[in-house]
Amino acid sequence: MVSFKRARGLLPIVKYFRTPLALNDLNIDRTFLQQVNLKPVKSIEFTFNPFFSRTYSIRHVSTLLISPRWRSSNENCIMRVNVRSDKFPPQMQVVFINGNILIVKTENLSDREVLECLMTECSKFQ
């Protein structure tokens, strides 16, 4: 029972090639989320296989972006979640208003890195 309590405090994904100081950078705080602006986005499609081992980041990002609080920056943005049962790697496909398409393969990325990628592309359109 003691080992179970000790394991509960660990991160869900262990990053082997990061220093312990960099692990704090993977956490998403409220000030980071307040910078999310979905105005130039037309649609976002999350595709993942739930039986694949590295789907934590895309599942966490999809639950964050689908929530009404962060979605209020663009009410017309269409969000789809495709759950596949084949060996398809997890990815996020973002279609912008001008027709550009951004595909983010989230297999080896943390949830913060996925959001940073989305935010940098959205900031180019403003």
Automatic annotation (TrEMBL):
Q: Which Pfam families match?
A: MRP_L53
**Location within or outside the cell:** Mitochondrion
Q: Which UniProt keywords apply?
A: Mitochondrion, Ribonucleoprotein, Ribosomal protein, Transit peptide
Q: Principal localization?
A: mitochondrion
Task: List the InterPro entries hit by this protein, alphabetically.
Answer: mtLSU_mL53, Ribosomal_mL53
Provide a GO CC annotation, any one: mitochondrial large ribosomal subunit
Gene3D superfamilies linked = Glutaredoxin
Q: Which domain of life is it from?
A: Eukaryota
Give the family this protein belongs to, as stated in its UniProt record.
Belongs to the mitochondrion-specific ribosomal protein mL53 family.
Record's protein name: Large ribosomal subunit protein mL53
Organism source for this protein?
Answer: Mesocestoides corti
